Amino acid sequence: MTDSDKPGNSTDSGRILETLRLVKDDSGASNVLSFASLEGVAVRDGHAHVSLSASRDDAARVEPLRPRAEAEIAKLPGIDRATIVLTAHRPPGQAVPQSQGHRPFKLDAPANNPGNAQQAAPGGKALPQVRAIIAVASGKGGVGKSTTAVNLAAGLAKLGLRTGMLDADIYGPSLPRMLGHSAKPAIENGKIIPVEAWGMHAMSIGFLVDEQQAMIWRGPMVMGAIGQFLGDVAWPELDVLVIDMPPGTGDAQLTIAQKLSLRGAVIVSTPQDIALLDARRGLKMFERMNVPLLGLVENMSYFCCPNCNHRTELFGHGGAREEAEKSGVPFLGEIPLLADIRLSGDAGTPIILAAPESEAAQAYTKLARSVAKSLRMGPNA
């Protein structure tokens, strides 16, 4: 990578590009742009977010220069702080060294083969200050996964567990709105300080970008952002970290499973067959990565009319329970389809806290207790 690789000609990009040229290594012969290219710049409320692309080897050369580069960018007019995200790429066809902890994952390997755990697991445990990390996932979008994840995390915190939440859905971050918190997180000693809301420590790309901004990022940039949320966020000591996974079964899910020692996964589905097909793929994905399955949740299980209490099963009913029984995993409960769940999420207060006696809150509380029991934490452990 050389400094001839330039992004657009915006004023911010030009000023930051010139600043990066001036930040040199100890020899004085090379600067940041000798090893990396500028992929993107966004300046919001005086905070410059800078994306650099480099090979894995060059990324190691840039890393010692990053604090100085961020400090110099923060001196530019109109900018008071800066965060540089390094997106490391490897040449096509080049294998990832085993010593880096990213072992190849073979889809044709048996799910229960003990040797496959060596391939799917990272070389060393990330986030050692977290006792248990769990993923809340779905095979597809639109099934209420994020709402379930937020209320599960709030429920675990309500049980007295030190709880964190990571919104790993880079393209569709919803955590800031659902927690009612839009302030930018602070940065101390080069680390992002998680936002505190409702008794939880939380992080999302949504805290760093404008709510209406589209995240038009290539896959490697998404992987880089997730990696930095794991390594560059000052997560405190936690009993449990809940990760709201992006929908689907792709690179992001595999990266998280490889970088972390997941204690388990919760799969969210709606009752209808088409959603269960995708939920089944999610189950199989975690099985192949040797991640324990904590269970399956049926969201939007039924609708009760608020006026007459007549129960209607809009999307069918019981499909997730049947799938759990077929797959041999626990069934964690039914979450009703209620307008109050949506309203509380839009208002920024999880319904498990906003209306703790409601039917929905009781369902989420049961879910949190079941997960805590599976993790051997909480009052019923």
Automatic annotation (TrEMBL):
<dbReference type="InterPro" id="IPR044304">
    <property type="entry name" value="NUBPL-like"/>
</dbReference>
<protein>
    <recommendedName>
        <fullName>Iron-sulfur cluster carrier protein</fullName>
    </recommendedName>
</protein>
<keyword id="KW-0408">Iron</keyword>
<dbReference type="InterPro" id="IPR034904">
    <property type="entry name" value="FSCA_dom_sf"/>
</dbReference>
<comment type="function">
    <text>Binds and transfers iron-sulfur (Fe-S) clusters to target apoproteins. Can hydrolyze ATP.</text>
</comment>
<dbReference type="Pfam" id="PF01883">
    <property type="entry name" value="FeS_assembly_P"/>
</dbReference>
<dbReference type="GO" id="GO:0005524">
    <property type="term" value="F:ATP binding"/>
</dbReference>
<keyword id="KW-0547">Nucleotide-binding</keyword>
<dbReference type="InterPro" id="IPR019591">
    <property type="entry name" value="Mrp/NBP35_ATP-bd"/>
</dbReference>
<dbReference type="GO" id="GO:0051539">
    <property type="term" value="F:4 iron, 4 sulfur cluster binding"/>
</dbReference>
<dbReference type="GO" id="GO:0140663">
    <property type="term" value="F:ATP-dependent FeS chaperone activity"/>
</dbReference>
<dbReference type="InterPro" id="IPR000808">
    <property type="entry name" value="Mrp-like_CS"/>
</dbReference>
<dbReference type="Pfam" id="PF10609">
    <property type="entry name" value="ParA"/>
</dbReference>
<feature type="binding site">
    <location>
        <begin position="139"/>
        <end position="146"/>
    </location>
    <ligand>
        <name>ATP</name>
    </ligand>
</feature>
<comment type="similarity">
    <text>Belongs to the Mrp/NBP35 ATP-binding proteins family.</text>
</comment>
<comment type="subunit">
    <text>Homodimer.</text>
</comment>
<comment type="similarity">
    <text>In the N-terminal section; belongs to the MIP18 family.</text>
</comment>
<dbReference type="InterPro" id="IPR033756">
    <property type="entry name" value="YlxH/NBP35"/>
</dbReference>
<dbReference type="InterPro" id="IPR027417">
    <property type="entry name" value="P-loop_NTPase"/>
</dbReference>
<keyword id="KW-0378">Hydrolase</keyword>
<feature type="domain" description="MIP18 family-like">
    <location>
        <begin position="15"/>
        <end position="83"/>
    </location>
</feature>
<keyword id="KW-0067">ATP-binding</keyword>
<dbReference type="GO" id="GO:0016226">
    <property type="term" value="P:iron-sulfur cluster assembly"/>
</dbReference>
<keyword id="KW-0479">Metal-binding</keyword>
<keyword id="KW-0411">Iron-sulfur</keyword>
<dbReference type="GO" id="GO:0016887">
    <property type="term" value="F:ATP hydrolysis activity"/>
</dbReference>
<dbReference type="InterPro" id="IPR002744">
    <property type="entry name" value="MIP18-like"/>
</dbReference>
<dbReference type="GO" id="GO:0046872">
    <property type="term" value="F:metal ion binding"/>
</dbReference>
